[in-house]
Amino acid sequence: MQPEQTRAVMTLALMAAFADGQKDDRERDHIRDMAQSLGSSAGGADLMKTYQDVLLGRARLEDAAAALDTPGLRQLAFEMAVGVCDADGVCNERERAFLEQLRGALGIAPSEASAITEQADALASAPVRAVPVEGEDVPPAALAVAAAPLAAGAAAAATATPAQGAAPGMRAASVSDAEIDSMVLNAAILNGALELLPQSLASMAIIPLQTRLVYRIGKVYGYELDKGHIADFLATVGVGLTSQYVEQFGRKLVGGLLGKVMGGLGRAVGSAATGSAFSFATTYALGKVAQRYYAGGRTLGTDALKSAFTRTAEEAKGLQQRYAPQIQERARGLDVGKLLKELRA
Question: At 138, is the pLDDT very low, low, confident or very high (cuts 50, 70, 90)?
């Protein structure tokens, strides 16, 4: 891809990120940091300027769409925009209006656009249940503790209620520290493997899997979590849902993994070592910090959570190198279609 095409795709991604009109300051900061961190590796595409142009209304959707001159690039841009809009939940009316405008500008057929959005919406609404999907390998004892579904009328977004099976802050007796460690490591390996796959639907699965991991860990320590609480926890430690998806996709984009065309459910494994390390480290750190937070009765403050997450993510980057062979093997054996169906079930 030429730098102007990279800019065009990222322009549309950032427009999608702000399409809902509801991003809080934490998410805006995450998106800005993402643009800054990716800018140095974007091959001449100034992503920080792109971010500023979108934020200040200087960028035009029609101009960005016109720069994408092949069907593959146009489909790529639309899939990516759908994933961004759905990263923090099923699209709202503003996001759907944006996607319809984008569909028209890109010349995507309505039937094709509907198929993409339906798949993404299904992933965005995937339950945080504990039944394992392919490659998740949840330890049996931990699965037994975390298997109960969320009750109707779950806790409000900023709170977590005690769950059955353990007193809040006390680990269920049937689950060992080693089993929790295994749960976290398996989730990190699976998400690192998904990052090696080029298709956008594989990237869309990473956030639901991270959400499931935090849910399971909270459950083990006696907390019944809903998606709102989990999203707030992620934002507090420094992981925005929308910005994380944009960064995951952006790393593939600027790293050359995407190739000629996206879409579909092929299984070509690319050499996206940096992106894989990012998803592995983020997932691993989320799991370990969640373990510390819920084991301690949710007493850690915002600064302590952020510091613990940053430190653990850095440590996990080194750990990822040790598990790189397992990550690559998992990627080769992943049936993405089956994984997505299991997540949506």
Answer: low
**Average pLDDT, integer, range 190-204:** 82
On average, the pLDDT of the chain sits at: 80
Query: Residue 77: exposed, middle, or buried by beta-carbon count in 10 A (0-12, 13-18, 19+)?
Result: buried
Unique residue bearing structure tokens 């809080």: 24
Position 189 confidence tier, pLDDT thresholds 50, 70, 90: very high
> What confidence tier does 128 reach under pLDDT thresholds 50, 70, 90?
confident
Reference 162, options 98, 220, 78, 83; nearest CA is 220
Yes or no: say if 197 and 334 are a contact pair by the CB < 8 Å rule: yes
> Confidence class of residue 255 from pLDDT cuts 50, 70 and 90?
low
Candidates 9, 12, 86, 98; CA nearest to 54 is 12
Dihedral pair phi/psi, residue 161, rounded to 5°: -100, 155
Instruction: State the pLDDT at residue 203.
Output: 81
The pairs formed by 272-276 with CB atoms below 8 angstroms and a separation of 24 or more are 272/195, 272/196, 273/324, 275/195, 275/196, 275/248, 275/251, 276/192, 276/193, 276/195, 276/196, 276/320, 276/324, 276/327
Label residue 132 by pLDDT band (50, 70, 90): low
The Cα–Cα gap between 128 and 227 comes to 8
- Give the separation between CA 81 and CA 91, rounded to whole angstroms: 11
